[in-house]
Design goal:
The structure holds 2 protein chains of 2 kinds. By secondary structure, chain A is mainly α. Helix content of chain A is 63%, strand content 0%. Chain A is elongated and about 105 Å long. By secondary structure, chain B is an alpha/beta fold. In chain B, strands 6-7-8-4-9-10 form a 6-stranded mixed beta sheet, with helices on both faces. In chain B, strands 1, 2, 3 and 5 form a 4-stranded antiparallel beta sheet that branches. Chain B has a 4-stranded antiparallel beta sheet with strand order 12-13-11-14, with helices on one face. The two termini of chain B are 38 Å apart. The chains are: A mainly alpha, B alpha/beta.
Chain lengths: 288, 288
């Protein structure tokens, strides 16, 4: 290449304003590639160029959002929240498959009992109504904590530590479980009102799990409540003679009241979810 | 020098075991190394500074903030980088995805800004070419660099690195030292290690911990100087009650009392460290 020759000013101006034939553009750019002095003479906006490169990198490098993140985005969830929730262990494929399988199984059991004429000994909806409320609890147990989240220790040192992560993930798990269970509800035999009687127990158990999680780890509080719930369902049927006693209208009022009372309690005690919260900041302890 | 981190009379117990027994320490800008045997309290101290653990008593201030206060703790987390002793990963995530996830935890909510920052830190630890590799496909050294990249997100003013050189081969360790010493030029870096070579190579200050207390605080040269007059070299094996080892030149290096026929040797950081921990007192009774 002739390094003695340089692009005349008039040619540079026609090049930058787009007034050259394609063959001339190729010739000019060929020269520019080998001539630093002429490159310096071609005016361009550095920020614009850097921005352009960044846009290209975004297209080339950006990872494809995960399925859960894409679904959440379509539901209107902000992009960064969707990416955050997609990493929730409880929202991983395994948990979603398990919840779906449980719901399908519960619906199948309801139909089998109904069609087999066994309704005199076992109510067709009992299994579904007993199982559906505890599905979010399993998700919450897997949503947050050092024993269930491999990245917990890293997360605990970020502004998203504690209640922000736990409550956001618990909400996502609850909505997901309710949505899947809700989709199955119309498929159940029996009156629609009774078939939906799992909803308030589900909310109350979720709120109770979170309230207990201010004292013990979420997996422990969820396990205790699942055991207590199944025990209560069995005992309620035995003691009252009504196998669906825990799903009666009176019981539903109690679940609703418990939910309303416990949600503010969880909010007030949310600092306890933070592993960095000193004991002396807790209401029950005095500063040492 | 104005300390960026200070702790005073810090205590922490796990059950009946006292892990931190009231150390009072100050750390300024630059790289400070924490040395100590297993169970000395290094990790507990770093976890408290990283706000993932609350102390039972004492005071902590970091970057002018008090982590005992909820709002100040959150602000500190925004300005903190933390590499845990056992950094967890989601193995099915790619390097880019996992780093982006931690960036979201650090409140980098704008996607373009976040991706720019992810690319920056991956370049810092030389993982740009591995951005699309799943974590399960990374070697131990690469995972350690990935964990360091996460700690660098948001350009933190305080870096807390718990045994960052574990799992690195000699070449990676050299590169890591270069990176950390560069980072220490403009911020406070606290790192724990078992490797006295790391301390000698890159730390401006060193704290030796034993039994939850700080038994030495000063420069690496000062730590080496504590062994002056107690390091010996001889061509005959000393008595078994002395702490000694055979060096590459075939001579015996002894700590403590002068063995017969031995000549004084230049003390190093490791000599000072071993003597502080009780080596050479005659009660350890084993050849190192």
């Amino acid at each position: 290449m002739n390094t003695q020759w340089h692009l005349p000013g008039e040619l540079i101006e026609r090049y930058t304003t787009g007034h050259l034939e394609p063959v001339q553009v190729m010739s000019v750019e060929s020269h520019l590639m080998g001539c630093a002095r002429c490159r310096e003479a071609v005016p361009y906006e550095r920020e614009w160029l850097a921005d352009g490169w960044e846009r290209i990198e975004e297209v080339v490098d950006r990872p494809r959002p995960r399925v859960v993140a894409r679904v959440l985005r379509r539901c209107g969830v902000p992009e960064h929240v969707a990416v955050f929730l997609a990493a929730t262990p409880a929202l991983a494929r395994g948990w979603l498959v398990a919840v779906t399988a449980t719901v399908v199984c519960a619906v199948a059991v309801a139909h089998l009992v109904d069609s087999a004429g066994a309704a005199r000994t076992v109510h067709p909806l009992l299994f579904f109504l007993a199982v559906a409320p505890v599905l979010p609890l399993a998700g919450i147990a897997l949503a947050y904590g050092p024993h269930v989240d491999p990245v917990h220790e890293t997360q605990a040192a970020t502004p998203m530590a504690g209640s922000r992560s736990l409550l956001l993930r618990a909400l996502a798990v609850l909505v997901c479980a309710i949505a899947l269970t809700g989709l199955a509800t119309p498929l159940l035999p029996g009156p629609p009102g009774l078939a939906a009687a799992w909803l308030l127990p589900s909310l109350a158990l979720t709120a109770t799990t979170l309230a207990l999680a201010t004292r013990v780890a979420p997996p422990v509080s969820a396990a205790v409540l699942v055991a207590a719930w199944f025990g209560a369902v069995a005992a309620g049927g035995e003691l009252t003679g009504d196998r669906l006693a825990l799903f009666s209208p009176a019981a539903q009022i109690l679940y609703g009241a418990a939910t309303v009372l416990l949600i503010p309690l969880v909010y007030l005690r949310r600092a306890r979810f933070d592993p960095g919260e000193p004991r002396w900041n807790r209401p029950s302890a005095s500063r040492n | 020098m104005e300390p960026t981190v200070s702790v005073s009379e810090l205590t922490k117990r796990f059950g009946r075991r006292t892990v931190l027994d009231g150390p009072t320490l100050r750390f300024g800008p630059g790289v400070t190394g924490l040395l100590g045997p297993n169970g000395a309290g290094k990790t507990t101290l770093l976890r408290i500074l990283a706000t993932t653990l609350a102390p039972d008593g004492g005071r902590v201030r970091a970057l002018g903030l008090d982590p005992a206060d909820r709002a100040q703790r959150t602000e500190l987390r925004r300005r903190l980088g933390y590499l845990p002793q056992d950094p967890g990963f989601y193995p099915h995530f790619t390097v880019f995805e996992l780093t982006e996830y931690v960036a979201i935890l650090k409140e980098l909510n704008d996607r373009r800004e976040r991706h720019r920052e992810v690319r920056r830190v991956l370049a810092e630890v030389d993982l740009t070419d591995r951005a699309r590799t799943r974590v399960r496909g990374l070697s131990g050294g690469m995972r350690q660099r990935l964990a360091l990249a996460q700690a660098l997100l948001g350009d933190p003013g305080l870096l807390v690195l718990d045994e960052p050189t574990v799992g690195l081969d000699p070449e990676q360790r050299m590169r890591f030292r270069a990176l950390v010493s560069r980072l220490g030029e403009s911020r406070t870096v606290l790192l724990s290690t078992h490797q006295t070579e790391d301390v000698a190579a890159l730390c401006e200050r060193v704290v030796v911990m034993r039994g939850g207390r700080a038994v030495f605080e000063g420069t690496p040269a000062g730590l080496a100087a504590t062994a002056a007059g107690r390091v010996w070299s001889s061509d005959r094996s000393p008595a078994a009650s002395e702490v000694f080892w055979r060096t590459a030149d075939g001579r015996y290096r002894t700590l403590g009392a002068r063995p017969p026929g031995a000549v004084p040797a230049e003390p190093g950081v490791e000599d000072g460290y071993l003597l502080l921990l009780g080596g050479g007192s005659g009660d350890t009774g084993a050849a190192a």
